[in-house]
């Protein structure tokens, strides 16, 4: 290069490195039903890339409303229990680049039939069963039951039932621990119940044992008897957990406040556990059948 000639200045502008994977749209439309969660996701080119999420230009951080997640090259923003206020423009940004999302929150289609209260008060006596029931709009709708926000499944304590559009939760032999808040939920909607367990009024007269031992001789009758507090109380008798009705073997009697079960011509098969029950309360009996009844005949005296 000759003397007095200025060297040519050459400048280079470096292309920014790619932050987001190319195989994704730069803008996405996301639609979510009110009450459900909305997930916005994108892929970065390098797993170590840190991104920042924005809504309508405002920076977002993990909270009770939104959850920021990063797994490998995946970046996600989960908007929980989306409402109308969560609709708008979102972006995932890093290195001066971004991927954008428009979130639209729509009103959900009705899950539950409209002709029912959104919340019900249910009262049951301790020891009895409590049935919580509601109606869904479509027979094929699957629901989930909760107690105090904990998911319930059929067990020895609760029974989940579905018949047509009716959904039921049966709480069996309810106790104080079963009282609380229940809900039947599907697709972000719910029907709520408050269950109150009350102490039962006294069914049986207090001046009697809760359990009695009864002995009968084989071939004779055995009478199990108890007293109810109110003459109009209807009771049910059971043997070894099976309901009894009047028959050629047993006779059920009610006179005033007295309740009796007469086991006729008792045999070994009649021994066992009996109970008289009403209003979730009971009086119990243990029947024991002992050896055969003997008939003693007086000797006949002949006179000449």
Automatic annotation (TrEMBL):
Pfam families the UniProt entry points to: I-set
Residue span, Ig-like domain: 16-106, 108-198, 200-290
Annotated gene: Obscurin
Protein name: Obscurin
Gene Ontology CC: cytoplasm
Keyword Disulfide bond annotated: yes
Subcellular location: Cytoplasm
Keyword Cytoplasm applies: yes
PROSITE patterns given in the database record: IG_LIKE
């Amino acid at each position: 290069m000759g003397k007095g000639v200025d060297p040519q200045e050459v400048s280079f502008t470096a292309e920014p490195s790619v932050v987001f994977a190319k195989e994704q749209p730069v803008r996405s439309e996301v639609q979510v039903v009110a009450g459900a969660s909305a997930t916005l996701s994108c892929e970065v080119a390098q797993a170590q890339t840190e991104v920042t999420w924005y809504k309508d230009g405002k920076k977002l951080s993990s909270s009770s409303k939104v959850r920021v997640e990063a797994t490998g090259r995946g970046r996600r923003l989960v908007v929980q229990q989306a409402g109308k206020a969560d609709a708008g423009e979102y972006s995932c940004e890093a290195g001066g680049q971004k991927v954008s999302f428009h979130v639209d929150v729509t009103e959900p289609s009705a899950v539950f039939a409209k002709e029912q209260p959104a919340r019900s008060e249910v009262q049951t006596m301790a020891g009895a069963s409590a049935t919580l029931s509601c109606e869904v709009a479509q027979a094929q709708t699957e629901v989930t039951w909760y107690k105090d926000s904990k998911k319930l499944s059929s067990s020895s304590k609760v029974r989940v039932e579905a018949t047509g559009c009716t959904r039921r939760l049966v709480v069996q032999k309810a106790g104080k621990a079963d009282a609380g808040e229940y809900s039947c939920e599907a697709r972000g909607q719910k029907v709520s119940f408050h269950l109150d367990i009350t102490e039962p009024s006294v069914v049986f007269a207090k001046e009697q044992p809760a359990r009695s031992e009864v002995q009968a001789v084989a071939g004779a009758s055995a009478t199990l008897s108890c007293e109810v507090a109110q003459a109009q109380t209807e009771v049910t008798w059971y043997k070894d957990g099976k309901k009894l009705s009047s028959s050629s073997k047993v006779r059920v009697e009610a006179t005033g406040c007295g309740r009796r079960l007469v086991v006729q011509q008792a045999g070994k098969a009649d021994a066992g556990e009996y109970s008289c029950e009403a209003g979730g309360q009971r009086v119990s009996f243990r029947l024991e059948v002992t050896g055969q009844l003997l008939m003693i005949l007086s000797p006949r005296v002949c006179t000449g």
